[in-house]
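Technical note accompanying the year-one report. For the benefit of new consortium partners, we illustrate the data format agreed upon in the data management plan: each record pairs a sequence with a structure-token string. No post-processing was applied to the example shown here.
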Amino acid sequence: MKNLTNAFVLIVMVVASACVQAAEWAPEKQKESVFTERKLDTFQHGVKEEWGYAAPQRDTFLVLHPQQARANAPLYVVLHSAGHDVHSCLACTTRVGNHDIYHAPPEFFALYLDCRANKGDWWWGSNKYKGSEVSPVDHRVIDTVKWVIQEYGIDENRVYLCGNSMGGSGTLGIGVRHGDVFAAIKANVPARVEHVSNRMYFPPHALPADVTLPDPPIVIDYSGQNDGWSKGHDGFFAAMNDRRYPLIMYWGPFGHANNHASILKVNDLINSFDWLSVKKNEAYPVFTNASTNHPLPWPDHVDSKKPGQVNAFLRWKDVTETAGSIEVSLFTVSPSELKTTFTIPTETNADVSLRRLQKLKVAPGATVRWKFNSASGEAQADSTGCVTIANLKITSEPTVLTIQNR
């Protein structure tokens, strides 16, 4: 009987200890205030042991409410630049043109994180944390986002990450790795691409056979070729293209700019894709090797005065998916829908891959049937189960691509 009692006590102690550990990380609300007629909550918190920080630290984050209270709102997550902290980052949003990427839409919750309070804790990740392992600050960002999603009843399928400069580097490095959290991400003049290259095992690294990464979010990147921080974008583009990952890129000689009005004078496409309408619980097509992509200015033509784009004119809609098939309408954007100084192509040829499948299961190496307009055939999935249909002719007339298990 005594042994049973001791065993019961031990079990209770273990359970209690686990509960205490689980409750150890609980952000504390420091203040409620009003900012630009929106409710603002200020939180502080310590660290989780599993994040891997060498020493304890305190961090601050801000949660800005929608202008009008609503249930199941989307979330706009902001990573500031090296020249800011979380408070000065939010202060930028009082004036149009001041780091426009920081400005959260009025119907969104917004999460502003900080990485300036603790030395060496910057989220571009390429200086202190050079390897492929997720760093302490990466863990902190993701766990904070997940906590806010739960605490505020966020629509978990509409969570978006963005940032400027160092925050753009963090957006790529943290965001591309976490397609299970973010629907889409947008990086304004990211300060180098080493962070994302390391975390995603891009060359010269290689993705280990035993590592499985979630399909990335839709990735939007706009960088100035005359900006020294944009170095390496040729390798980043090549890696995303080779992996069949989703990427929309814009560039031009606008330097390390953060004012959208100034950038739009150089490249008026940077806001043309509605990234905040992408949903995490919907499959999407990846366009690669499109014939209408412009030649990259990196690495040999960074003195070029020409703006350019990758995948800027390709669109999709009406995704219908079952356990046995998927249909998605593909088309090029029409001039009536997009006013631009660029010549909008009436057609393009591109390879199309399907990712973030929700219902259709395709085994690695399996053969599927496909149909697109009058063209049809079979295609073999790669080692991850991703299916690519090569060289489809996509026009301004929406055309349904159908893929089904054989």
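Partners are asked to follow this layout when depositing records. The first strand starts at residue 28 and ends at 35.
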